Amino acid sequence: MSRLSARDLVVGYDERIIIDGLDVDVPDAAVTTIIGPNGCGKSTLLRCLARLLPPKSGTVLLDGSDITTLRPKSVAQTLGILPQNPVAPEGLTVRDLVGRGRHPYQKWYRQASSEDEEAVDEALELTATAALADRTLDALSGGQRQRVWIALALAQGTDLLLLDEPTTYLDLTHSLEVLDLVHSLKVDHGKTIVMVLHDLNLAVRYSDSLFVMRDGQLVEQGPPESVISVELLDQAFGLRAEIITDPVFGGPMIVPIGTHSARKVPMSE
User: Fold this and answer.
1) Is 106 within a domain?
2) For residue 39, what are the contacts with CB-CB under 8 A and spacing of at least 6?
3) Which of 157, 188, 213 is the C-terminal boundary of a domain?
4) What confidence category does residue 221 fall into, taking pLDDT thresholds of 50, 70 and 90?
């Protein structure tokens, strides 16, 4: 049984239903990426899996229990989330921010313990941000900031990490830097990671499993090599494309041709 799953999930905002009757099982110790067109419910699903957004009906199961029945601290000790646009108080140092990941283990009457300090040091080392510990967030590059926010989630000591568009606003170099970190967290530390990405080729390259969504429904799920096809891209994205073999990693690579609303003329014509 998957440690994180959902059954017959219905989620929305006020009267608007975004996800209707969705079932998912997140593969353990793997990187799963949710992809789909804008507005299909990717981030909504991630927020619901993290208990940030309560479902209208259905159940999110964490280690076999309805996540809404678990104590907030218990959830925070098991599951960490990096939202799409995290914010921090001005002037906060990297070490202070990462230290906030230890709050689920602290009491109101107890200061940070040696165990907390060790967890922060380990999170900084894992994300290659130890040298930045005394710098403020506003002094960092985009890629450095994203690694620091991931360090905050790691300091929680959770095995499950949910990352909502961790490469947003990053150039390709910094995006690869963050996704290489995600890959190493899975390979070297056995983390279960679910993330939302817009870049399809990066999603294919860095994922063990894909959840493909459209209009609040799960269109397809499974390993990229068995999921990505010309037909799937047409169905889910309205995208005309060719699928070739990635010359570096050997998996599928998507070469966009255009959409149904416009025809791109090849350079040779």
Assistant:
1) yes
2) none
3) 157
4) very high
Same domain (yes/no): 112, 59: no
Last residue in a domain, options 137, 157, 177? 157
pTM value is: 0.89
Domain encompassing residue 96:
89-157
Give the Cα separation of 46 and 52 in Å (integer): 9
- Tens digit of pLDDT for each residue in 194-210? 999 999 999 999 999 99
DSSP-assigned beta bridge partners for residue 262: 259
Q: Which residue is it, tokens 């050997």?
A: 250
Report the C-alpha gap between 203 and 142 in whole angstroms.
20
CB 240 within 8 A of CB 259: yes
147, 132 in Cβ contact below 8 A?
A: no
For residue range 129-176, what is the model confidence (pLDDT) as tens digits? 999 999 999 899 888 998 999 999 889 988 999 999 999 888 899 899
